[in-house]
Design brief:
The complex is a heterodimer of chains A (114) and B (115). With 114 residues, chain A is an all-beta fold. In chain A, strands 2, 4, 5, 6, 9, 10 and 11 form a seven-stranded mixed β-sheet that branches. In chain A, strands 1-3-8-7 form a four-stranded antiparallel β-sheet, with no helix packed on it. In chain A, a hairpin with a 2-residue loop joins β5 and β6. By secondary structure, chain B is mainly beta. Chain B is 0% helix and 51% strand. In chain B, β5 and β6 form a beta hairpin. The chains are: A mainly beta (114), B mainly beta (115).
């Protein structure tokens, strides 16, 4: 298995609280991504990183921030969680960003915001 | 407009039969890549097969093949000799050069294999 670890795997929190999800990789891949999965929507890109301290927004970035201080770690932060952010969050990695580069996914983190 | 459309929310197939999962895409880019992922009930996303826009041959990986019809903008996944373990969600996805090569997913098709 590709070395991608997401933590926590499950979290229940209350509206208005901050939440941080962590993605750790051991593959030394340059690109890291955060997606959310909701029924009927497939996976939608939240943010991605193309290097240490280099990040950019995806399709559904409102309410989320990210940081990447080391190649191996990519953090997703919900500053003030809302019920609409209840979802399954997937981290993914790729060596490069060409049209043929495959994304490898972590196991997912299920977040419930009450 | 939807970039990736999977029109079959759910499908049944008899064990040992072949099944085709539909995927149509929308892009004005000449260079793009098409991917299929499988998500079993355990939740992980498993890469199955890739097709490049310039590839003349349809991609194959074991029991999986991709029926690529460029003019129709379709990239259907064909699973031959279905097995019970093929029961899962299947997602079609695309990377386009003019979208920064980000991977965009369709809504998925749930395949159920009957014994």
């Amino acid at each position: 298995d590709a070395g991608i670890t997401q933590s926590p795997r499950h979290k229940v929190t209350e509206t208005g609280t901050p939440v941080t999800l962590r993605c750790h990789q051991t593959e030394n891949h340059r690109y890291m991504y955060w997606y959310r999965q909701d029924p009927g929507h497939g996976l939608r890109l939240i943010h991605y990183s193309y290097g240490v301290k280099d990040t950019d927004k995806g399709e559904v970035s409102d309410g989320y921030s990210v940081s990447r201080s080391k190649t191996e770690d990519f953090l997703l932060t919900l500053e003030s969680a809302t019920s609409s952010q209840t979802s399954v969050y997937f981290c993914a990695i790729s060596e490069a960003s060409g049209t043929n580069d495959v994304l490898t996914f972590g196991a997912g983190s299920r977040l419930t915001v009450l | 407009a939807q970039k990736i459309t999977q029109t079959q929310p759910g499908m049944f197939v008899q064990e040992k039969e072949a099944v085709t999962l539909d995927c149509t895409y929308d892009t004005s880019d000449q260079s793009y890549g098409l991917f299929w992922y499988k998500q079993p009930s355990s939740g992980e996303m498993i890469f199955l097969i890739y097709q490049g826009s310039y590839d003349e041959q349809n991609a194959t990986e074991g029991r999986y093949s991709l029926n690529f019809q460029k003019a129709r903008k379709s990239a259907n996944l064909v699973i031959s000799a279905s097995q019970l373990g093929d029961s899962a969600m299947y997602f079609c996805a695309m990377r386009e050069g003019n979208a920064g090569n980000m991977l965009t997913f369709g809504g998925g098709t749930r395949l159920m294999v009957k014994p």
